[in-house]
Structures are given as C-alpha cells and as structure tokens.
Amino acid sequence: METVLIAQDDPPGVGLAANQVGVNLSIFIIRPTQKSKIKVFINPKIIKTVSGSVLFRTVLKKDRPYKKKPIRLEGCLSIPRIWGPVKRANKVLLEYQDLTSPTYEVKLGWFQGFEATIIQHEMDHLNGIVFTQRTIEQKKQLYKEDEGELIKIELI
C-alpha cells in the first residue's frame, strides 16, 4: 500500500484504503504531505465528529474588494481527474490500532483539519462509498480535469 501511495504523484496521493488495492482488510494509510511520515490505521472506527461550518471569509483589499476563499475539492486515486467538494467534519475522534505497539493496543485519537478530511474519505472507502457519492448527495458540482482545466460534469 505504501508503494502505491508514494508512487502516485500527479496529483500526489494523501491516503489509500486496503480495498482500493484489492486487499479485504480494514486498514488505511495517510500521508497529508509528501514529506509526512505514513500513518497506518488498522480496524479504524470513527467515535465522534465535530462539525464546524467552513467559513468563507471576505477580505477587503484595495484592488480586490471582498474576495472569497476558494473551495477545497476532493479527488481520489480510484477515480482519476474527477474532483468535487465534500462537506466533512472538521475534527474526528478515531479508535484504531497501528503498527507502533507490539500488542496492537487500541488507541483513541483526535484528528483535525486536512487529516480529518483524509480519514473520513478513507473510512468511506472501507464502507464502499466514494467521494463522488458524497458530492452528489450534498447537491454539489463534480468536475472533470482536462488539460489542467476543470470542466463541470453535467448530471442527468
């Protein structure tokens, strides 16, 4: 799994669930940046989420009054060149095991921001859900990348 994740560089992969590579285990790995150490999550379970609305602040600048912050789009190694916004919880409390403890003790940890987004995306994979389903459920727009441009996908 690590080899597959590291090999993905256009765009860089940030997470991978075992079932994406044909392994029927409840495991996923994450690497939020290319310099991050890969974290392994075995038998993960989201215990609690904390949602906060993503605020789009308006900033007053001399040459650009009230510019909005861009929307973050999710993508997936399993669905190349397709992008869409997905509203996710800002924080997740995760129960899991990892490879650091020789007894595979169950750990509990809070993750927030981009790590929380990746964890929710990978948990969806383990549950048979892909991000495009979330985008459509939330009545958001999907995009296809074509030669560096994002083109709206028209849904029937």
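the 2nd protein, sequnce then structure:
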Amino acid sequence: MKASLLVLAAGMGSRYGGLKQMDAFGPNDETIIDYSIYDALQAGFTKVVFVIRKSFRKDFELFFKNKIGDRIAMEFVEQEIDKIPSGFSIHPDREKPWGTAHAVLMGNEVINEPFAVINGDDYYGKSSYKTLMNFFKSESDKRVFAVVSYLLENTLSEHGTVNRGICFKDSEDYLTEIVETLTISRDDSEQICYPTTDGVQYFKPDTLVSMNMFGFSPAYFDLANAYFEKFLKERGGELKSEFYIPFSLDEMIRNEEIKVKVLTSPSKWFGVTYKEDKPVVIAKIKQLITDGVYPENLWA
C-alpha cells in the first residue's frame, strides 16, 4: 500500500543554536532524518514529504536529494506565516509560523494517502514505523487515527526543559485526552515535574507521552483546517501562539469526530533539543551501528 512520511523540519532550532535537521550525527554525516527515512523505507513507506521554510529550501532539498537519490519519492512543502485561510490578518510583529498542526496542514498539497507525522530532530526507532504501517493496513475507518506513545522518563533532556503531549486512554486503548504540557524537567530529587499557576505538578516515570509521531488519514486535513480557523479567531492576534497537533486532536476527540488509537513501541526514543544533547545522540547511533541495527554507511 502507499503511505507517506511527513517530516516536520521547518523549526529553526532556537534552543539548539542552529538548523539541527541538517546536522550530522552518524559516522558518514548522516542526520537523524536519514535514519528516520531509512527505517520508514524498510517498513514500506513509499514517499517522504518535508515541511520546511522557504529560507533554506534550496540547500535542504539539494542536501537530501543528493544523499538519498531515487530510493523514495520526495516532496517539499513550505510552512510560512502567511499560509493561513483567507479573511485572517497577521500581526505585523509576529515572526514564526503557527506550530506543528499548522505544519501538518502544509502536507495537504501533496498527500492523498495514509501518512505518518514525525519531528525531524527525533529518533523513533525501527519498530515504530512498522507499528504504524501495520495500523494503516488493518484500520479501514478513515476517522480513526493513531499516536505512537513513549514512556515520559525516556524522553527527557539532561540539559533543559522539554514539551510533551501527555496521553490519557480508555480501556480499549483509545486516546481520551492529549494535553500539551510545557517545560517538563527533573527537580533536584530527580522527580519529573512541571510548573503550574498553583505550584508544581508531578508525573510518574511511566506516564505515556506523544513525541509527535502520529498516523493520520487525509481526513485529518479538513478537520484540522476547521480548528485552525477557530484558533486564528481566538488567538491569532497573539505574537507567539501556536496551533499544536495535540490541541487539534483533543478538540476532535471531545467533539466525537475521531478516535485515536494509542500504540506503543518497544523502540527507544531519543532526540536533540539542546546543543548539549548532540554527543549523547552520536553515542547512541554509534551503539546501534555496533549492534548491527544500521550499516556504518547508511546510503552506500
């Protein structure tokens, strides 16, 4: 079957200090995206769609086309501030686009098949792509989506706070709520927490979280676009408001428009939020190569 991999790569990496989507982590200058595409290919995905910014499109496109060639079909779409429905205005001081759910909407131009969504700076593991492909093959209802969940304790950075989508599910493993939670970290006693207006909220280490790895049908586009218009009406005038994927899914679930299956993967997630995370990621990829998960030269 046909399935696309939508890679969110438009973020500028403000906390990282550069364009981390093109930074090298493998022994032959492989990026994290290289490993994601390699895993997706092996799982049976047939196309990769990059969501990028116009400012670095030329360099980005050449970079990946030269490395991967014709091994998989490629599309490039741009996420920009002005890509919003007609009738809405943009605050003249706003600098960044509208968040991850807005980025996914850019894929509507080129995607007509089931598709996975991933961050360009996160490593999800081989089995996660196989899990999503099996979901696409077995699920016939176009209003049933999927989220691949990970344990919160395995998704933190030692070098600063992170944002995570906290997943709540029912007895049938369908998502009941996904709450985008900001500035999560460990405190001095190694407990996982985040600040609230009432103090500090604590999480258990095995709390399930979304790392922005989702499985959607094209039905997502029309649904999300309606909620994006609602978002723009309510918060479009704010300088830094963002339309996150968890926000859009949470509203769809509460309005009983969709169901979201919570899938779990035995793969270990890792990623780069801060520059200090880079040596850790390099070491983990080196170990995966030593263990035979990947060849030393990925695209040789």
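Residues 81 and 97 are 4 Å apart (CA to CA). The chain has seven helices and 13 strands.
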